[in-house]
Description:
Layout: E1 5-8, E2 11-14, H1 23-26, H2 40-55, E3 66-68, E4 74-76, H3 77-80, E5 105-107, H4 115-120, E6 125-133, E7 145-156, H5 157-161, H6 172-176, H7 201-223, E8 229-236, E9 239-249, E10 252-262, H8 264-269, E11 275-283, H9 284-292, H10 305-308, E12 330-337, H11 349-360, E13 364-374, E14 381-389, H12 398-416, E15 419-420
Parallel strand pairs: 3-6
Antiparallel strand pairs: 1-2, 4-5, 6-7, 7-11, 8-9, 9-10, 10-11, 12-14, 12-15, 13-14
Bound molecules: phenylalanine.
Phenylalanine binds next to strand 10 and strand 11.
Amino acid sequence: LQASTIEIGNHVFQKDDWSNVTPKILSYIKSEKHLQKHHPLSIIRKRIVEYFYNTYKNNRGTPLFSVYDQVSPVVSVHQNFDNLLIPAGHPSRAKSDCYYINKHYLLRAHTTAHQIEMIKSGLDNYIIVGEVYRRDEIDSTHYPVFHQLDAVRLIGKEKLFGNFLDLEIFENDFKSNPQKIQTIISNSKCIDQSKQPCHTLEAVKLTEHELKSVLVGLTQHLFGDNIEYRWVDTCFPFTQPSWELEIYHKGDWMEVLGCGIMRNEILLNSGVSNSIGFAFGLGLERLAMILFDIPDIRLFWSNDSGFLTQFNEEDNRPNKYKAISTFPQCSNDLSFWLPEGVEIDNFSPNDFYDIARGIGGDMIEQITLVDKFKHPKTGKSSLCFRIVYRHMEKTLTQAEVNETHGKIAKVVSESFNVVIR
Ligand code: PHE
């Protein structure tokens, strides 16, 4: 019998047809890898926070930014999407991409979800760090839970322009009519990226300059002055203009963060009408994998002392990960017929990944959809997934793999009403 409620901490949530969070995923809440002493994610967090503490101080010499690193990941659909002007129907809201508790609540898909509540509480400069949850494919760089660090900085007229007090943050016709702000873009399309109509060009350019200098400074603080980087224009519904910072690593450009000038609607909705703001968000795993040469994202969840003792937060040398050992892979396919009338496109691979992950856990290294076809005579559709089993800490026996693979096949056939081939 399926329970009709989900309990998280002291809260009881009623399940509905949006609920798709699994017990396995719920078990990651409070894991706090970003706060675990000597853990690579914690080392990265500390170095970023330390950089911001040193870069921004008030006139009494104390850090300007406040840091929040234990905020619950349970957020409302409003916090994760509506507050950030993410339009209804935007692909990032899909049930196939997020872990919903029910139709009103989900596990945050980004730490940006906390912007309005943080600013409303009076913060002008803050950093928030925590784990985020996304349904995704399974391979060495994707894990359904990972960590982000987001920051916001609000800048008033005096701060921005110093003695040039005839300069303004807002265009005159906006000041006479603050309701005259742009209306929402249609779903998934990019808004014009030059600047928001309400802002003066000089305010935007000065803020952009500060934002980019600070983030390049952060990158150099983490990776050294010789790191190669480039800015790429992009779009987010909550910033305009928006950029991504990429760094060159082992022959590839890798995106390490997203940022931009905050949409003024968000500031107005948070009770701020006299400032311009910038925001950015970055993924801690991505940075730690580059800095420490960590090859597989599952290692961040390892409890093996052979992994954990390699890193030391007091040690400022960028120590590189040494493979604890490489255990053999074991690859098994699973093919099944979808129920009659169900088309391939109506089957979300993320549903399959979650079941497999719930049973196989971290002994699964990768899952790929290797084949799909529709039988010309019966009209039935068939899918084949290849599961690569490999444990980080031991050699798996064939018997162990077979047992897990068999369980996955059984649960998949029951849950989706499919027929294993
Ligand atoms: N939330 C964005 C992401 O998850 C990152 C971001 C944060 C971009 C803040 C701009 C401003 O990719």
